[in-house]
Amino acid sequence: MVPVRYADRETVGKRLADDLHYLGPRSDIVVFGIPKGGMVVANVIARDLSAPLDLFMVRKIRVPNRPELAMGAVATGGEAQLNEEVVNHLGIIDSDIGRVEEEELRELYAHERRIRGNKARLDPRGSVAVVVVDGMATGATMHVALREIQKKHPAELVAVSPVGTPATVREIRHLADRVICPLQPTHLGSVASWYDHYPEVDDEYISRILQENRAPAMAGG
Predict the structure, then answer these.
(1) CA distances (Å), 196 to each of 11, 167, 185, in order?
(2) Which residues, including other chains, have CB under 8 Å from residue 23's CB and lie 6 or more apart?
(3) What angle do CA 25, 28, 30 make, to 5 degrees?
(4) What's the confidence (pLDDT) of residue 152?
(5) How close are the terminal C-alpha atoms of the chain, in Å?
(6) How does residue 69 score in pLDDT terms, banded at 50, 70 and 90?
(7) Confidence tier at 206 by pLDDT (50, 70, 90)
(8) Could you tell me if 214 and 123 are in contact, meaning their C-beta atoms sit under 8 angstroms apart?
(9) What is the mean pLDDT of residues 131-153?
(10) Which residues pair with 178 in a beta bridge?
């Protein structure tokens, strides 16, 4: 039964973990949560699947001199996606785009170091990589994460989101072997509007659950 909305991230994590039971008991599953809220959902899924958990950082690329506006997203590793409509409408030139991408990527890596500490990154090569967000407003965050993780050659790539529009899900299907997205409204609005309880998630919480997941790292990098 498809829900009308969700109680909270923990509840939805249990629901999505059930949807992933088709994978069966196996030792080659790696769960990646995209902070911030995606890590809460991913933590529940990883525990249910007895799988190692890691974070996968994605950061908005902000319009020069207008930090309240985003013109794309960049992921750990440097994979980026631009919103061409925004770029063209505002007439943003290539040199400014390149400069801002580099700045955002530096900020992303600094942020990741603060959260990760000395915890090594997990390598999805040859594994079933399950990539989790807490909702897809535009799909840009999931899009760049999947494209970057594809470069590591996982055996299977699974995209998981509690909510996303049918159009976004169709786009993501071109990048993943399987997409799990139970709630697909035609008009989404904000991700928060699909939850009864949608609190802020801080870096300390993410760092704690990452450090608590002591499954051995398959490779750093």
Answers:
(1) 11, 24, 16
(2) 29, 49, 128
(3) 105
(4) 94
(5) 40
(6) confident
(7) very high
(8) no
(9) 94
(10) 158
User: What single-letter DSSP state applies at residue 134?
Assistant: S
What angle separates helix 37-49 from helix 203-212, to the nearest 10 degrees?
A: 20
Strands (E), the chain: 29-33, 53-55, 58-63, 66-75, 80-82, 128-132, 156-160, 178-180
CB-facing half-sphere around the CA of 118: CA atoms within 13 A: 0
Please report the pLDDT score of residue 219 as a whole number: 40
- Inform me whether the pLDDT recorded for 83 exceeds 80: no
Confidence (pLDDT) at 214: 54
**Separation CA 77–CA 80 (nearest Å):** 9
| CB hemisphere CA count around 91 (13 angstroms) | 0
Q: Which residue has the tokens 């699909």?
A: 194
pLDDT at 199: 95
pLDDT band at 2 (very low <50, low <70, confident <90, very high): low
53 or 97, which is more confident? 53
CA–CA dist 165, 188 (Å, integer) = 6
Sheet of strand 29-33: strand arrangement: 53-55, 29-33, 128-132, 156-160, 178-180
Angle between helices 9-19 and 37-49 in degrees, nearest 10: 40
Residues in the chain: 221
Contact predicate 216/194, CB 8 Å: no
